[in-house]
């Protein structure tokens, strides 16, 4: 495959971002120096699995990997979508693959109905509960109709989880204006347990509520215990918390804690510690502020850049490294530049990171397979 005109990137840290943006822009990309000095150099198993998903979700893409796995050449095809089942690697959570489908499915030729199997919740990746409760409403603000159903839980290491993602293609996205945060009016949450005592989830709920009730009284966290086939192949538990603001259109901030057995044994942690940690992470996210949380900054920037040639503005907390790199890559692949200015807040200590308002003019990515209304 010829490298002429291909985007040149190095390293493995933003491997998935490059593949997604290459697919959307139609530009080929070469990613070199993928863990060259590692004991196990080259592409990991879950990254190879991700490339298989891209090959199934598109038509005509070409992928070349050198003998050591340290160089990947990717030439994108046409995004076709469709209906199929994909088995995800248990090295990462299903959210690793699901985020890519969320970015690509609105521009597919056909409606998307994909079933993903694997680990449903893993702290390194966005959890399926957050995608269902926060990401899906965010997509609606851009004019995208999508839904996610959790069919089975799947805890590490063996997984066994199963989710169904459905998305209808759009001709083009809508511009967005989210600069007024409002105040937190209520907190909702879900604590789940699978193949273990349901008491562990109840203990997490009690611990998290004990801290959050100091912030506001409207808090409701449910406990859900999974048994049999719905519980997946490994025992596990976790908690997801979502804060909802008074802003018109309802804005959400979310955090999730999914402890792994090795971590709990090593650090001698209890379910109470996990519930308290989840509450503190949510409070930290609220302190940082913004109309979207840190896990949704990158996808918000992406859809702003792909939207119509109108001004889109979103208030965010301090940008994550992942979001900052998304800004850089959007300029490389689409030529979109963002304006970022700090938003002044009266009566806030200087130690608290300032909010920023990010704005851009979209590039109007049009799905030619979708007829205009």
Automatic annotation (TrEMBL):
Q: GO: which molecular function terms?
A: RNA endonuclease activity
In terms of Gene3D superfamilies, this protein maps to: RNA 3'-terminal phosphate cyclase domain (3.65.10.20), RNA 3'-terminal phosphate cyclase, insert domain (3.30.360.20)
> InterPro entries annotated for this entry?
RNA3'-term_phos_cycl_insert, RNA3'_phos_cyclase_dom, RNA3'_phos_cyclase_dom_sf, RNA3'_term_phos_cyc, RNA3'_term_phos_cyc_type_2, RNA3'_term_phos_cycl-like_CS, RNA3'P_cycl/enolpyr_Trfase_a/b, RPTC_insert
Pfam families xrefs: RTC, RTC_insert
Repressor keyword on record: no
Provide the protein's localization. Answer: Nucleus, Nucleolus
Keyword annotations = Nucleus, Ribosome biogenesis
Tell me the ranges covered by the RNA 3'-terminal phosphate cyclase domain, including all copies. Answer: 8-339
Q: Which intervals hold domain RNA 3'-terminal phosphate cyclase insert?
A: 179-286
Record has Nucleus as a keyword: yes
Gene Ontology annotations for the cellular component aspect, listed alphabetically: nucleolus
Protein family (similarity comment): Belongs to the RNA 3'-terminal cyclase family. Type 2 subfamily.
Q: What is this protein called?
A: RNA 3'-terminal-phosphate cyclase (ATP)
Q: What is the lineage of its organism?
A: Eukaryota, Discoba, Euglenozoa, Euglenida, Spirocuta
